[in-house]
Design brief:
The protein is mainly α and 95 residues long. The protein is built from four helices and two strands, in the order H-H-H-E-E-H. A two-stranded antiparallel ribbon has the order 1-2.
Length: 95
């Protein structure tokens, strides 16, 4: 397996969230909060999902509102085929 190349703005929780979405096919901040191994509040999980949405790693299922799926870029990042530093840099003030 190739090594992942995170962007400087990313944190360890981001990888855990992306891995969870990859396993479960989608996620909400509430589901991530309930995963005790992540130790993240609903607010923190939503903040990270929004940051990754701005960067193009996840996308919101608009017809369901709070559900997020991986994008092709998110899948490529998890496989180690994408350097996340080349993605758009999210604006934390928009979150």
């Amino acid at each position: 397996m190739k090594q992942r190349q995170p962007a400087p703005w990313m944190c360890n929780l981001d990888d855990l969230i992306l891995e969870y979405i990859d396993r479960e096919d989608w996620a909400t901040a509430g589901l991530i909060e309930s995963e005790t191994t992540m130790n993240a509040s609903r607010g923190r999980a939503f903040e990270r999902l929004k940051m990754m949405e701005q960067a193009g790693l996840v996308e919101r299922e608009h017809h369901r509102g709070t559900m997020f799926d991986l994008t092709n870029e998110g899948v490529r990042y998890l496989r180690g085929d994408l350097d996340a530093e080349h993605l758009p840099r999210p604006n934390p003030h928009v979150v």
